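[Discussion] Sanity-checking designs against the backbone

I'm trying to build intuition for which residues belong where. Below is a structure token string of 667 positions. I'd appreciate it if someone posts a full sequence so I can compare it with mine line by line.
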């Protein structure tokens, strides 16, 4: 029992009490067969009047149960000898299940069955169905939780009564009892949707715990010291002077926010958010220069080699004229280059280091890391970012960048410990991308379009379908597509890039495409992030219906970077389901990453948008950000008051909610 409970993550009484039902069944009354209704779940009591094991069309145990009003068929497709025994003619049973219409009238498939004895009583409350594991039956779990409830009696209230009363929420103890054993007049639907006051009380407590722990992290950060950088007086203005463009208003605004953070004595943790192409890199570069001018080093980390390489080139072009030494570090480097890079990082000769995950490995030692910049932050886990942060002494500032906009509810909850800057304006002169949704049946027309575009001096991407189940298959498809395209377009130079290529090969292919030596680039979704080739103005995405909306938006952002009018063609395989159609419609109608992320959140839940951030961050189990947005707002409003006036209660509250989820990683 203890071992099985541990598998469910339950290690103490409190954990047991917080193990809440998945759903409920209503065994509080017995329904007459005559009164059964299709599609509803009900409890029926009667005698078995017929039972047999049939073999046609397939093996099944079929029994008929009779009460004073009629007969009901019970059907089992999988069964044990003990069940054949229990369903013998003459047995008196109480069964519970969903009513369906079968060949012989109403039937229940795999109902739960109980022998009716002298002691059988009708339940007084709805029966909870708990998440469980093999070896631990519902009955034992119900019993254990029932005992825990009795023992615990008045479970400790962690909140001042005024607080939950103001929100019209019941007490914690009352809620807990009511959720384990709801009274029969509570609507099953409201219970299942978690909209009853008792569910809401627990959702509120969970959201509040999240707010409190985020606030504490935030406060902790304010108490840690970081290198303080004066405003740049030389390098930043020299960089800006060398650019062929002026910063947008939005870029100026966020650059100021970051500059101000860096003058503070505690570590910045700021998320720089901006749609694809909004120009985050230059803003990051300005922050880097402020750090360098103050005599500290900067690390710039990207999730893929392609992206890191591109950042490296861009930084070289911007910083070499300013005489700033940049090192380059990836996993695929040869030993000699790597040792040289490590040496210049350790000696402090390299002021800026650009690279991939290789940057936070053990062997990398900085002389004085003052700022860590992390591009596409949602691609990195909390632990990876933490490792990079630990490479500085005192703690370096951190700037995280993301092109995936965070819907408001997410930034209020999972991201509440970060400061956020948003670039909400694209640089001028971009022509909007036209998106088309085209059936795969019209492939020939699309190929013709690709040919024309390339012959006119533009470039195109052909994105191969995402095959999540099999990387091998995905690779095979990319190779096939590449062969087909070469055949189709003998007059063009076609490139191929995919995730399994050696980094040096990838770089060569990308460099060729960037320089315009190849016109068509066949790619897997590795080009999703960051790749910047302004002359590419056409993108075809195969099997677009398989991809996430934010992913499609990111992919599409690879075109529309130059002055030529750009097009993105989403090819779909015939017959689109209604949801798939609805999703593609969002991409078709909107070029606004924010609206797209919001739709993604609604369609697929927060896990997708949070990315690997969720590893190490407790996910909400009860509360739902969309459904419980009012509670989220209330929790946010209340967190400060509680921290100030009720520190002991706060500790108890966090102890209850955070101990079961594991210690929250110090983000
Ligand atoms: P992202 O925010 O997606 O990382 P980048 O930083 O790669 O975008 O910028 C996209 C392109 O726009 C780059 O070629 C960059 O040099 C250019 N760019 C950035 N800011 C401006 C601006 N204010 N005016 C014109 N072009 C800009
Ligand atoms: Mg970028």
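Best answer:
Here's mine. Compare freely.
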């Amino acid at each position: 029992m203890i071992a099985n409970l541990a598998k469910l993550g339950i290690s103490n009484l409190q954990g047991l009490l917080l193990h809440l039902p998945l759903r409920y069944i209503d065994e509080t009354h017995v329904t007459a067969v005559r009164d059964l209704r299709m599609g509803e779940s009900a409890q029926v009591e009667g005698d078995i009047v017929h039972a047999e094991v049939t073999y046609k069309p397939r093996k099944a145990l079929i029994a008929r149960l009779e009460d004073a009003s009629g007969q009901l068929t019970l059907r089992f497709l999988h069964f044990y000898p003990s069940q054949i025994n229990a369903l013998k003619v003459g047995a008196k049973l109480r069964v519970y299940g969903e009513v369906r219409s079968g060949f012989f009238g109403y039937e229940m498939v795999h109902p739960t069955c109980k022998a009716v004895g002298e002691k059988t009583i009708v339940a007084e409350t709805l029966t909870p169905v708990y998440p469980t594991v093999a070896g631990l039956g519902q009955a034992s779990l119900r019993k254990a939780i029932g005992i825990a409830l009795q023992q615990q009696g008045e479970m400790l209230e962690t909140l001042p009564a005024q607080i939950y009363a103001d929100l019209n929420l019941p007490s914690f103890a009352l809620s807990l009892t009511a959720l384990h054993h709801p009274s029969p007049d509570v609507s099953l639907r409201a219970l299942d949707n978690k909209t009853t006051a008792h569910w809401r009380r627990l959702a509120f407590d969970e959201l509040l715990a999240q707010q409190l722990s985020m606030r504490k992290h935030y406060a902790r950060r304010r108490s840690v010291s970081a290198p303080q950088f004066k405003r740049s007086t030389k390098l930043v203005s020299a960089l800006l002077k060398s650019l062929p463009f002026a910063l947008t208003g939005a870029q100026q605004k966020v650059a100021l926010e970051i500059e101000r953070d860096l003058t503070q004595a505690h570590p910045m943790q700021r998320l720089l958010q901006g749609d694809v192409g909004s120009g985050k890199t230059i803003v990051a570069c300005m922050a880097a220069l402020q750090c360098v001018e103050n005599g500290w080093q900067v690390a710039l980390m990207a999730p893929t080699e392609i992206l890191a390489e591109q950042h490296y080139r861009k930084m070289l072009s911007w910083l070499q004229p300013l005489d700033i030494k940049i090192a380059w570090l990836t996993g695929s480097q040869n030993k000699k280059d790597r040792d040289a890079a490590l040496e210049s990082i350790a000696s402090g000769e390299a002021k800026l280091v650009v690279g991939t995950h290789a940057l936070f490995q053990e062997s990398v030692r900085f002389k004085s890391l003052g700022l860590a910049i992390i591009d596409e932050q949602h691609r990195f886990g909390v632990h990876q970012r933490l490792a990079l942060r630990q490479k500085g002494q005192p703690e370096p500032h951190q700037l995280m960048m993301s092109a995936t906009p965070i819907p408001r509810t997410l930034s209020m909850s999972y991201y509440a410990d970060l400061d956020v800057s948003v670039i909400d304006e694209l640089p001028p002169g971009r022509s909007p991308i036209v998106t088309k949704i085209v059936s795969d049946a019209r492939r020939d027309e699309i190929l013709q379009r690709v040919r024309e575009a390339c012959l006119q001096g533009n470039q195109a991407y052909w994105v191969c379908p995402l095959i999540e189940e099999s990387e091998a298959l995905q690779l095979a498809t990319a190779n096939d597509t590449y062969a087909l395209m070469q055949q189709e377009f003998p007059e063009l130079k076609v490139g191929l890039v995919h995730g399994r290529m050696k980094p040096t090969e990838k770089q060569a292919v990308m460099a060729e495409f960037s320089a315009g030596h190849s016109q068509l680039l066949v790619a897997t979704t590795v080009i999703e992030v960051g790749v910047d080739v302004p002359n590419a103005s056409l993108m075809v995405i195969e099997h677009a219906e398989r991809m996430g909306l934010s992913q499609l938006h990111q992919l599409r952002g690879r075109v529309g970077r130059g002055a030529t009018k750009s097009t993105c063609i989403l090819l779909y395989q015939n017959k689109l389901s209604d949801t798939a159609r609805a999703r593609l419609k969002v991409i078709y109608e909107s070029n606004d990453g924010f609206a797209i992320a919001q739709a993604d959140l609604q369609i697929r839940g927060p896990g997708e948008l949070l990315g690997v951030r969720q590893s190490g961050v407790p996910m909400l189990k009860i509360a739902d950000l969309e459904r419980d947005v009012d509670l989220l707002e209330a929790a946010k409003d209340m967190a400060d008051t509680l921290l100030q006036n009720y520190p002991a209660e706060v500790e108890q509250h966090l102890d209850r909610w955070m101990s079961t989820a594991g210690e929250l990683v110090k983000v």
